[in-house]
Amino acid sequence: xxxxxxxxxxxxxxxxxxxxxxxxxxxxxxxxxxxxxxxxxxxxxxxxxxxxxxxxxxxxxxxxxxxxxxxxxxxxxxxxxxxxxxxxxxxxxxxxxxxxxxxxxxxxxxxxxxxxxxxxxxxxxxxxxxxxxxxxxxxxxxxxxxxxxxxxxxxxxxxxxxxxxxxxxxxxxxxxxxxxxxxxxxxxxxxxxxxxxxxxxxxxxxxxxxxxxxxxxxxxxxxxxxxxxxxxxxxxxxxxxxxxxxxxxxxxxxxxxxxxxxxxxxxxxxxxxxxxxxxxxxxxxxxxxxxxxxxxxxxxxxxxxxxxxxxxxxxxxxxxxxxxxxxxxxxxxxxxxxxxxxxxxxxxxxxxxxxxxxxxxxxxxxxxxxxxxxxxxxxxxxxxxxxxxxxxxxxxxxxxxxxxxxxxxxxxxxxxxxxxxxxxxxxxxxxxxxxxxxxxxxxxxxxxxxxxxxxxxxxxxxxxxxxxxxxxxxxxxxxxxxxxxxxxxxxxxxxx
Length: 496
Prior knowledge:
By secondary structure, the chain is α+β, with helices and mostly antiparallel strands. The relative contact order is 0.09. The protein has three domains: 2-100 and 117-126, Ribbon (CD59), CATH 2.10.60.10; 152-271, 2-Layer Sandwich (Phosphorylase Kinase, domain 1); 278-495, Transferase(Phosphotransferase) domain 1 (Transferase(Phosphotransferase), domain 1), CATH 1.10.510.10. The chain is 33% helix and 18% strand. It has helices spanning 2-6, 110-138, 153-159, 167-174, 185-193, 229-241, 278-284, 289-307, 371-374, 383-403, 428-437, 452-463, 475-495, and strands at residues 25-28, 40-43, 45-53, 56-64, 80-85, 196-204, 207-214, 217-224, 252-260, 263-271, 318-320, 329-331, 337-339, 346-349, 354-356. It starts with a helix and ends with a helix.
C-alpha cells in the first residue's frame, strides 16, 4: 500500500476554498504530519485527510500553502480523501469521508441546499479565474489550440511546440523570466504521461530515481515514497514559484501525480545526468587539481544562487537548502555540478520578512548536520541560521572532493565525513558527541598543503567549520576566493 499513503494528500472531498486567503490561517495539525506549535500550524488553507490501509482508516490534520491548492481539486476515492477549508481552526472538528462511505443524515434546510449549489459554482469560478490569470500572465501562446482538439492532451502538447522542437527548446520557449523554472502546468502533466520508464538508477529513503525517455530524450524521474510525500509537495512548490533556472541547480521539467499499474505515484521530472551523483563519481574517480577546483566552484555557484534574493517582479526569494551533501549533488558531462533535492528548502523574502519553512517533518542528513542543529540551538526564526548550516555542509563536501585529488601521485580512497569517528550509519547522539561535545572536524590530509590550490581549499573548509555559525564564511566570499584561485591556475597555462 506504498502508493496508498502517497495519494492521501492529493484527493479532495467536499469543500474547496472560495478563494486564496490574503493572510495565513491558523490550522489544527498532528505532530506526525508536520512540525506543530502546540498542535497548530500556519498556512494558506487547512486540511483534514483520510487514508484507508488494510481496512484501517487514518485521519490527519494540517495546513498547505497556496502554491499547492490544486491538490484540493480532485474527487475522493475509496482509499484516499482530503477536505480543505479556509478559516482559522476550521479543520479542528472536521472529519472526512472516503468514497462510498455514508454521509451522516442532517436535517434538510434552505442553507444546506444553497451551499450544495453555491459552493461548487464558486469553486468552478475560482478555478476558471486562476486558469485564465495564469494563461494571461505567462502568455502561453503555444497552448492556444483549436476547439476541436481540446480533449486531446497529445494535441495540446503539439500545439505548444513548433516542428521537431526538443525538450530544451520547449523549456526555453515556456520558461519566461520570473515564472518559475518548469513548463506550464498543463504541459507538465502531458509530458509526465508521455514518459517511458527505462531503468532504475537510484534508490533511497525518498523513493526511487528512474531514467525515463520522452520523445527520444533522457529525463530523470524521481518517484517519491509515501513517507516523503511532503518533500514532493515542497519541491513542486519551490520549482513552480521561484526563478531557479541556473547552470548549477538541477533543471526542473515537470511535476505530476500520475497513475501507474492502478496505483497513484508522485513524480518529479528533471534533467538526466548520466554521471550520477558527486558521491558516486568520487567513488570511482580520482581528480586532478583543476577538476577539483571546477567541482568546488560550480557547487558554490549553485549554493550562492539559492542563498541570494533577487528583487523585483522577476526575482526570487532567498533559499537555504538544508540537506546539502555529495549524494544531493549531480555531476554534469562538462564536469560541473548541479545541486538537487529541494525537499527541505526554506525560503525568505526581505520585503515581507516572511520565513517559509514548509510543512516537511523530515530532517537533514545527520552526518552533515551543523553543531547548532545537533544540539538544537539553531535559531529557527532567523533565516541566516539556515544558510550557515549549508556552509558547514559545503565544507564537508569540499573535504570529500579534496581527499580524492591526486597530489604527487598520492590520493586517498573515498570516505564520507567523520568516517573514522562514527559508525557507518551514525545516530543523532553519535554525531552530537563528536561534533558538539568533542568539537571534532574531519582530518585534513597533510599532503594537501604541498599544493597551493589544495592548501587554499583546506583553509576554506576549516573556515566553514567554525562552531560559531556567524563566524563561518558566506557563499559569496567563498565564490570570490575560488574565482581568484581559478584565475591563478589558468594564468600560467595562458602564458604557455
